[in-house]
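Sample intake sheet
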Amino acid sequence: MSFLDVIAALGRRWYVTVAGLFATAALLLGASTLEPPVYTARGLVLLVPSQQMVGKGGNPFLALGGLDLPARVVVAYYESDVAKARFTSGSPDSEYVVAIEESTRGPVISVDVTDSSPQGALATLDLLTTSVPVELRRLQEEVDAPETAIVSTLVLAKDEKAQADNSGTVRMIIAATGVGLVVTVVGAVAVDGLARSRVRGRKRVGPPEPVPADPPVADPATPDAKAGAKPAGPKQAGPEAAGPEAEHAQQADPGTQTVKPFVARPPTVKLPTLRPPSVQPQPGGDSDDRALPPWHNPPPESRERRRDEAAARASSAESR
């Protein structure tokens, strides 16, 4: 089936097309409701080396090489189930991911928060970024690290406005639109093909032949039947049509009369009389009314024999 055939089927079955479009619109509304847009916020936290590592008058950024391991320990804590249940308890739709920022070679921790509302995303991000130095200090104190050797943190960047992420909603809308349009086209083409096949079947079979009705049978008890009146119907059933039972009843009761069907006879056409030349009347003589068929054409010898026989009979009559 070509593209033009599909368009023609959609036009012929417009009611299916309209119903499918309404169903597609309902699917779009449901998709946007089931998958609303989410809001994301991001922050970056840098681990700063201790005073013991930097030294007096040193630059902390030049001593970041040995802080990769403490950064991974912090990331492992925040990715645990206990930490996730603690920091997402304020919003049931809140999610976060704490990981090492791969775009840098230093001990930079990235915090990505997702929530159904921008306020919830920003609140969770603030909670996480403020808790990173606290949790990092707690972990170091548990291993009895001296004060001069404790690693601190520095917030490099933090979003102040959450960004809307519509990727999930767009995917759901595209899927709903595709499903609705495919179902609409397939339904319209299927209904059109079924309707056209039924029409072709009716044309091939033709209208049903009418069943002849049973001819009315004259009641012999009525005065019209006894008087021999003709019935009003087009034809009446005779003894042959009534079957052997009616014929037996008629033989048992001779006084019963059966109305015979009226049969129209064709008119009689009288053909002109043709006579052979031998019997044609002579001019001025008596007319001969003998009518011989056109195939009466005896041979010449039989005619001469008959003439001689007629002359002999005449002579014999005169002699008598």
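Comment: The CA atoms of residues 274 and 294 lie 6 Å apart. The chain has a mean pLDDT of 77.
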